Every structure is written in structure tokens, then in C-alpha cells.
């Protein structure tokens, strides 16, 4: 089976549109399987993905992630149906709950119950993309007029990947989604968590092998400092993005570390919080090295059950980019 590499950009920060499109075109030409655009509280994901769809031919185009609150399930079906049409059937739905902090304090919406919201959102999107009449009764949504999309999607199903953390939400993902994006799972626990995910799929009467797991991040770089590039992101999520990620890492044995990181971050600022992440924890949650070292790590992730690899390629040289992708696909 061909190894699947995925690329995520930092669209929420200082990346320019033209640079993002140029990167997507290089990724498309060199064999990257999918291109993921995040959405937080800066630029939206769909505008860029539509632009990329018009300038690429092969690469799958995904949200990484959009939340299940700030748009209704029907609005998400419209967005993804349009993206799938404009890209010729290359869309992937990357969906998650985000956090109470973002949903309540940025979007001004109630956060709970997130498990039901995610499930119902996926079910309604699937109904609309299949062309079914929207007759639905759930905890969040109740519709009985039988609306349908006023266009025919190019596919009757668009794959849904969910970023979920706690066991109940991961079990729900195994029951209704096409893929799972594990969040902040240490390498030592990855195999066990993926095995459990696939067992839940089997328990739901689904083929576990048909579901995909997108995980196992690596950064290809010749810069020794690349290992530390994710410190700021990790510290922010531990200290300021509610309790989900804090509890997740505590559950996997890092309770003392995350308590210290949060305290330092809140008392001394973001840089001190990032510096407070111990090296062993950083190494357990990611990997950075040259292309051959990263290839070896990808093979280890595959032994753990990973199907789609998250990669970062630390170069602006298209030729170097292509060589690194060629190595990673060996």
C-alpha cells in the first residue's frame, strides 16, 4: 500500500494566501496525499481550500479542523459539497468540537453536549450529501420539513475524519466517522489506543480496516532546532485551551508535567511555559530529524496502526521538498 502523507499549514497565523497556494501546488506535484487547512479564530478554512481546488489536480483537500458549532450541519454540508464539486471529488471533512473557550467566548454559543453535537452533525451531513430528505430528530437538531440540497453532490459520501480525545468521543468516532485524528497521544500509548479504536468499530458492525487513522507527526529538517518548533503550540494548548488537552496528557501519565507547564505559562508568560516542556515529553509527542530518520519513524508509526502521516517539511526549496517527499514515500 502506498504511504499516505498529509500536510498541515499554519494558515491561522502569518502565512500569506499566495504562499499557501504555492505550497499546495508543490505538494500536489510531489505526491502528498492530502492538504489540511485549520480554522480557529482567524481566517476561515473554506476560502483557501476553494482557491487551492482550482489550482491543483490530485491532492485531497481537508479542513483540519472546523468545529461543529459555529456552522450548522446543513451549512457544513453546503460548504463541503461545494468544495467536493469544485475539486472533482477531493474533499475530506475534518471535524471536531474545538474547546469550550473558543465556542463560548469567541462564537458565543453553548458548548455542551459536545458528543451529541459531533454525532448529529456527521449524521446530518451524510444525509444531505446522499441526497436524502432532511427529517431528523436529535438532542441538538430537529427538522421535519424534508429539505434537500438544491444540487447533486459529485459523490454520495465525503469522508469524515474526527479529532476526538476522550474514550466516549473516540468510540463515537469509530461508530460514525471514516477516520480518526488522535490528539496528543504519546508514542508509548499509540498502538493500544488505535487497537481500541478499531475494536470499537468492529463492535459497531463496521470493518475496522476500512477506517483510517491520521497521526504520527514528523518534521523533516536539517535544522537541529526543529525539535523545539512545536513548544509554543503545545504549551498554549495545555495552558490556555480549556481542560481537554490538559486532561488528555494527564491521562497518559504527564499530570505533573502539564500542571507545571500551566502554572509557569500563567505566571511567567508563554515563552517560559514553552521552555518548561521537558525534553522527554516533547520527544514522546512528535519527531524531528532528517528525511531518512523521519522515514524510520513513519515506519514505526505504521507498525502502531497509523494510516495517514502528518508531516512538516522545513524547506522553501521545491527541489529539496520533492526529494524529501520521495524519501518519505520509499
Protein model, in words:
The longest helix has 25 residues, at 244-268. The chain folds into two domains: 4-217 and 290-328, Alpha-Beta Barrel (TIM Barrel), CATH 3.20.20.30; 223-286, no CATH class. Strands 1-2-3-5-8-9-10-12 form an eight-stranded parallel barrel, surrounded by seven helices. A two-stranded antiparallel ribbon has the order 6-7. It is built from 13 helices and twelve strands. It has helices spanning 17-30, 45-53, 73-86, 100-105, 114-129, 167-176, 187-203, 231-240, 244-268, 270-275, 279-284, 291-304, 318-328, and strands spanning 4-8, 34-37, 60-63, 66-67, 91-96, 134-137, 142-147, 160-163, 179-180, 212-220, 288-289, 308-313.
Quick structural overview:
By secondary structure, the chain is of the alpha/beta class. The protein has 13 helices and twelve strands.
Mean pLDDT: 95
- The computed structural class is alpha/beta
Major beta sheet summary: 8 strands, parallel, barrel
**What is the share of helical residues?**
40-55%
In DSSP terms (H or I, runs of 4 or more residues), the helix count works out at: 13
Here the CATH topology of the largest domain equals: TIM Barrel
Task: State the total count of DSSP E strands.
Answer: 12
Amino acid at each position: 500500500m502506498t504511504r499516505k502523507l498529509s500536510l498541515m499549514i499554519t494558515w491561522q497565523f502569518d502565512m500569506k494566501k499566495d504562499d499557501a497556494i504555492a505550497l499546495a501546488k508543490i505538494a500536489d506535484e510531489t505526491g502528498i496525499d492530502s492538504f489540511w487547512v485549520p480554522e480557529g479564530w482567524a481566517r476561515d478554512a473554506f476560502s483557501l481550500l476553494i482557491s487551492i481546488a482550482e489550482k491543483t489536480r490530485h491532492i485531497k483537500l481537508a479542513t483540519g479542523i472546523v468545529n461543529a458549532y459555529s456552522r450548522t450541519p446543513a451549512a457544513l454540508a453546503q460548504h463541503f459539497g461545494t468544495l467536493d464539486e469544485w475539486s472533482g471529488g477531493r474533499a475530506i471533512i475534518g471535524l471536531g468540537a474545538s474547546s469550550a473557550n473558543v465556542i463560548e467566548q469567541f462564537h458565543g454559543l453553548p458548548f455542551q453536549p459536545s458528543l451529541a453535537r459531533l454525532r448529529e452533525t456527521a449524521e446530518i451531513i451524510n444525509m444531505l450529501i446522499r441526497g436524502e430528505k432532511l427529517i431528523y430528530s436529535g438532542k441538538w437538531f430537529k427538522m421535519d420539513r424534508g429539505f434537500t440540497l438544491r444540487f447533486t453532490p459529485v459523490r454520495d459520501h465525503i469522508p469524515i475524519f474526527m479529532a476526538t480525545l476522550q474514550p466516549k468521543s473516540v468510540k463515537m468516532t469509530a461508530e460514525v466517522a471514516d477516520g480518526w485524528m488522535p490528539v496528543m497521544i504519546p508514542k508509548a500509548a499509540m498502538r493500544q489506543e488505535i487497537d481500541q479504536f478499531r475494536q470499537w468499530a468492529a463492535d459497531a458492525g463496521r470493518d475496522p480496516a476500512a477506517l483510517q487513522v491520521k497521526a504520527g507527526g514528523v518534521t523533516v529538517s536539517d535544522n537541529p532546532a526543529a525539535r523545539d518548533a512545536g513548544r509554543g503550540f503545545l504549551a498554549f494548548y495545555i495552558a490556555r485551551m480549556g481542560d481537554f488537552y490538559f486532561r488528555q496528557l494527564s491521562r497518559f501519565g504527564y499530570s505533573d508535567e502539564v500542571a507545571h507547564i500551566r502554572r509557569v505559562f500563567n505566571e511567567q508568560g508563554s515563552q517560559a511555559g514553552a521552555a518548561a516542556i521537558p525534553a522527554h515529553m516533547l520527544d514522546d509527542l512528535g519527531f524531528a530529524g532528517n528525511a531518512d530518520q523521519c522515514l524510520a519513524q513513519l515506519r514505526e508509526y505504521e507498525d502502531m496502526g497509523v494510516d495517514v502521516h502528518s508531516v512538516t517539511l522545513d524547506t522553501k526549496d521545491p527541489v529539496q521538498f520533492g526529494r524529501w517527499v520521495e524519501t518519505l514515500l520509499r
